[in-house]
Write a structure and sequence with these properties.
This protein is α+β, with helices and mostly antiparallel strands. 22% of the residues are buried. The chain contains 3 helices and 8 strands. It has helices spanning 7-11, 15-25, 29-80, and strands at 84-88, 103-107, 123-127, 135-137, 145-147, 159-164, 173-177, 183-185.
């Protein structure tokens, strides 16, 4: 017996064909716009947090590098029983107050507070300049930190190294250096999101 297509068969939707068409055309314009909108919102929310993270990482890294520099200077002074100086060096070997520039650690054998290459004074270590726009300051008008053979500081070398990132003053940190030669990095003592010294002073670079 032969069978022919009925009118019912002709009106049956071609499901397979419609699905294939939808897969071929991909997402609609509305779906694309919704996707872009969601991405923009997530980016707007996440970007400030990411910037905060990057700045905090930079500040913490500088504080760590400064701590290592101080430790290297103090240990060398004790081990070699000599005066060791940390400062921003000028081309002529004298110290300046430009603490944001490259810092150098050197042995001051003749105690003239100058790096004398001609006298074979040893340059122990250096630290590169800080990020452009950021601020690094030491005690007012002090251009050097001098460690003696005892590990103590020479004269009025004690003070606070303050690091303040541009536009993120609330993330400023510092290293407090005592006359004994010992030092510590500041922390957020009261959990308010900003570092303080052990005497509860905020870190400012003004």
């Amino acid at each position: 017996m032969l069978y022919t297509h009925s009118s019912c068969d002709k009106n049956t939707p071609k499901i397979t064909s419609n699905i294939s068409h939808q897969l071929a055309t991909g997402m609609t314009l509305i779906e694309l716009m919704v996707g872009i909108g969601v991405t923009s919102i997530l980016t707007t929310i996440a970007l400030p947090s990411f910037n905060d993270f990057i700045v905090q990482l930079r500040v913490d890294n500088e504080i760590s590098r400064l701590s290592r520099l101080l430790l290297a200077a103090r240990n060398h002074a004790i081990n070699t029983e000599s005066n060791v100086i940390i400062c921003p060096l000028k081309d002529n070997g004298t110290c300046s107050t430009d603490w944001h520039e490259e810092l150098s650690v050197f042995v001051d054998n003749n105690n003239n507070q100058i790096l004398d290459s001609a006298n074979n004074e040893l340059l122990i270590a250096t630290k590169s300049s800080i990020n452009s726009g950021d601020i690094l300051k030491y005690a007012t008008n002090r251009n050097k930190i001098t460690y003696q053979a005892t590990g103590h500081l020479f004269g009025l070398s004690n003070g606070t190294l303050r690091y303040c990132p541009k536009g993120y003053e609330e993330k400023s940190r510092a290293i407090v250096i005592a006359r004994s030669g010992r030092f510590y990095a500041t922390t957020d003592n009261n959990k308010d999101g900003q570092d303080e010294t052990r005497s509860n002073q905020k870190i400012v670079c003004d």
